[in-house]
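Hey, can you fold this one?
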Amino acid sequence: MKIYPVILSGGSGTRLWPLSRSAKPKQLLPLVSGYSMLQETLLRLKEWPELMPPLFVSGNEHRFMIAEQLREIDIAPLSILLEPVGKNTAPAIAAAAHFLKKTDPEAIMLILPADHVITNVSAFREAFLKALRALQSGGLVTFGIVPTSPVTGYGYIRRGKSIAPSIECYKVDAFVEKPNLDSAMAYLASGDYFWNSGMFLFYAENYLRELNQFHPDMVRFTANAVDNAYHDLDFCRLEEKAFTECLSESVDYAVMERTEHAVVVPADIGWNDVGSWSALLDVLDCDADCNAIRGDVYVENTSDSLVRAESRFVAAIGVKDMVIVETADAVLVAHKDHVQDVKNIVNFLKKNKRSEHINHTKVYRPWGSYEEVDLGERFQVKRITVNPGEKLSLQMHHHRAEHWVVVRGTALVTCDDKVSLLCENESTYIPIGQKHRLENPGKFPLDIIEIQTGSYLGEDDIVRFEDIYKR
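Sure. Predicted structure:
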């Protein structure tokens, strides 16, 4: 019996703006501990002997950050499947099922979102072992979270008859949409309802069989996307045309709410999907006044609040039930009762074609990162960090020249036919129209200050001639 964790790492986490952004969403952020939520998802499984290396399904734009975060915790994935476009969870799981069946027709899939908190790992393992036993009946098993309060922001699962009293698992009687408060209170009192966790355990073959009953086109399109996929460095790119043809549908709507084989295993595991700032506050360590403090923060006469500083000093005096989050280019101040409306800010930014919902001032690239220091008419200043052994593409700009000053490390610079080695406090000039490349040949990070000057300074003024990352 081989069990493959399938980690779903899509989504942008807009309700956790300004920290979570589309270029670096919440699953890639260290929200609760020093590890990102994706890393936490994997670390809690690391000692489970039944599990094979994890399989990831992710968007293209996050591939290098995922690979780097896996390297940091010394986990080698089975593969990282890249979706050409987001199509929700049903096609993502189907593609993973087809991929696994190619090498293991009896593959079992443990489906886990990459952005959930589970504080009671031992109880999670117990629920997993129960689900394994329930799996033998051929069911599609979902983990139903034992509710602790009448939450209105989650979908619910109503349990039916017990199918194996010795292991505490039940037929699913119904999936229930997010309720109003009165209904949620009734669900909690009855003891027959669980929160819908979005975590599953089933045979790949069984999932595809059930999906084929309701969405045969999705099964066919995802099979074609896997059959015609190609490897790009350490990633597997699903074929674009076939995958794009898929209906965008969640696994709940596509299969779980329609199949006769849905089984729920109760899981009292300290679960939280961290879908908002108030949800995050529920899982963070707090001070005596129930404040969750992160970063360079001063509070006085403040209680029941989350105050987080990323780049500067933040002070809060005389406030209660507040969420205050500071980043280098944006500050959120909201009452805890209104944090679900943060998505409206993101919609405003999109509508006005602003960039604060996409990138932070620090932007990550496969070779390292860059950070905007200053921007004015016809000039821009960046701090660029190149990781050891990495290099940027061989490129050219039509509208800007660049001045580079090395502040740490050693830079190997190509400018047309000239190649030179620059050490700390040395500089060079890249004229408009010249092919150039920056490399870090050393064993330590390379930091340079880049001063751009010209009539247009946008990131799309790049003509690439060679790129080891195949962008």
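The mean pLDDT is 94. Let me know if you want another pass with a different chain boundary.
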